[in-house]
Each structure stands twice: as structure tokens, then as C-alpha cells.
From TrEMBL:
In the N-terminal section; belongs to the zinc metallo-hydrolase group 3 family. Pfam families: Flavodoxin_1, ODP. This is Flavodoxin. Residues 249-397 form the Flavodoxin-like domain. It comes from the Bacteria. GO terms for molecular function: electron transfer activity; FMN binding; metal ion binding; oxidoreductase activity. It comes from Xylanibacter rarus.
Amino acid sequence: MIEIKDNIYYVGVNDRNKELFEGLWPLPNGVSYNSYLIVDEKVCLVDTVEVDFFMPYIKNIKEVIGNRKIDYLVINHMEPDHSGAIELIRKYYPEIKIVANKKTFGMIEGFYGITTNEVEVKNGSKLSLGRHELNFVLTPMVHWPETMVTLDTTSNVLFSGDAFGCFGALNGGIIDSDINCDTFWLEMVRYYSNIVGKYGVPVQNALKKLEGVQLDYICSTHGPVWHEHISKVIDIYDRLSRYETEEGIVICYGTMYGNTERMAEVIARAASQAGIKNIVMYNVSKTHHSYILRDIFRYRALIVGAPTYNAGLYHEMEVLLSEIAGKDIKNRHYIGWFGSYAWAGKAVERIHHWNETKLKFEAVGTPVEMKQSLKEDSYAQCEALGRAMAERLKQDR
């Protein structure tokens, strides 16, 4: 197993088979479930792994400590991909004491029926393992109510739970300085926007609690152990949780026979000719929405369009707008919209309703409603919408 620093070891596992994280988010590169051992006068295990991976997990643990007992198990977060092995760990180490906060213990009882050998910690509580001193910081709603982080003040190592995590299995290397991290950066944004995105204010509160703390390593429960790129990782979470965006447009559309797609193409070309370089386009029925949500968190402008369907809005666009609304995105996002219909138009009206009641982004340009196919007048209107969004973005330069 990999020693991270000062008798702190990585004992996590990789999941290369799961297709959807939480049954929702695609995992083209898999995902890691990270767990850590601190070996001192007392042995402390920090978080566990999904229960399906228990046998390779326990082998990793024994490779580090042999027949030594584990004295403490710190649980920073209770989602089953991190807490699922608690019951089996208790069978192997029946004297182990679970270290967690009050809300965590309620969940441990609810999920696993465990109510004994518990050590409750509060914000600022400390635990000595011998040379290593642990300090506990509560970070509620990042992204569950019981979440906390654990700081090893002896080694300046932060065990951060899901915070600073990302999708992607670890291909041999564990610490960022030993691997090429290029594939992880956009997956960190996708992970944040889909898993944590709604909770920007709690993330900001957590970051404030860690201000001024020296961190040599960040040990998240997903993705690499951060060492060389700590400042970049914290900056990504800081910017995303403040809903800070880059200049760019996400154009996403639904289309049945290609007519609405042609409108999107005209809008994109007009925005490009007006000077916007960052433009991404998505067919909402083809691209998984997690990638669209990722880019909505990255770019300031959104243009959506879809046909009328069953006297309402095309289903996949309705779903996407619901997902965007669920993220409670704040701070300087612009929106424009368009739609098409064969005999009775409702799509444009429905998108307007979504923005007025839920999204509340700044509306830009004049919505375009096309009947049946793209003609000279609707073509010009689509161009005008693309140019209007480009000009609104350029005002922020």
C-alpha cells in the first residue's frame, strides 16, 4: 500500500464496473473509493468503502497493519459508498470505536443498527493517536447534514470526505504528483456540479473554516490524493461554490426531425461571428445531462430550445430545466430560448415559465418561436438571439 506521509497510508479501492454513480451519473473512467489508515500508538481508519469491495479492502488494511487491531474508525460522511463496510469492519475489529458527530450516529443506527462503541466529536474536538493529533471540523450540507472533515495537525493532512473529490478510478498512482491529472479536472467540475452544486453557501462556509490552515495533503474519498495541485483544487471549489463563470455559451436543444437543431446551429454561428469563442452545443436526448450541467456551471450564458410536444415542452428539455432548477444556481447567469411547433406552439411559453418561476436567470434577447421549418424571418430571429447573447457577454469584459 502507498504511504502518503508520516505513517498515513492509502487503503482504498477502484470501481471500474459501475456504469452510473448514485444510479445517475455516468462513470466512463470508473471511480475510486478512498480510505486511509493512520498508524501510531493507536491505529485509526478514516472512512470505509462500498461494501461490495470489502474483501480487497480488508486485504489492503492487513497489508499495512498485519494482525494489529484498529482502535478508531472516523466517519466523515455517511453515504454508503463510504460507510457501507462499517458492519463488516466491526466483525473483523469488534473493539473498534467509531468517531463521528451526533448526526452521523443517528444515520449509523438507521443504516446499520449500530449504537455501541461510539466517540462523539463536535466542531473543534481533538483526538490523540500518540504522535498524530486529529482535529474535527463540522461542514454540514457539504453535501449531507452530517458531513465533517478531519485534520491531522501533526502532518498537515486533511481528510476531506467528498469535498475536493472527482470521478475517475486511480490507474496505479495515488498522489497527484505521481500521475497525469489532465483527465481529472473536468471530471472534478462534473462531480461538483452534479453532486455538490446546490450547496454553494455551505461549501463557502467550509472553506472559510479552513482558511489559514497549512495543508500538505488533501485526502478526499474520490479521486487522487492532492499534494502538488492543492491550490488549484481549492480554487476550483471556491470558484464553483461562488458560481463564478467564464465567458461562454451552452446551447442545448431537443429535436425530433432536425428543425429545432437547425435553429440552434444558426444561433451558434451568429454568436461565434459576434466574437464568442467558448460555445458548446448539446442535443439533450443524446448527451447525458451531467455533462450539460457541468458546462452550465462553467459558462455564463445558456440558450435552450425545443419543440412543442403533447401540448407542452419536449420531455428531455423539461427534465433538464428541472435539473438546472434543482441546482439553485446563483450569480450572473444569462438565458435565451427558442422553440418550434407544427400546429400549436407551447415550448417557448413553457421555457419562459421555467425561467420566471424557478431559474430566474437574466433573460437576454427575444425568444424565437418557429412554425414548422426555418424560413427567412425565423432565420433572422435566430441570428439576432445569438448576437444578443454575445453582446451581453461582451459587456462583462
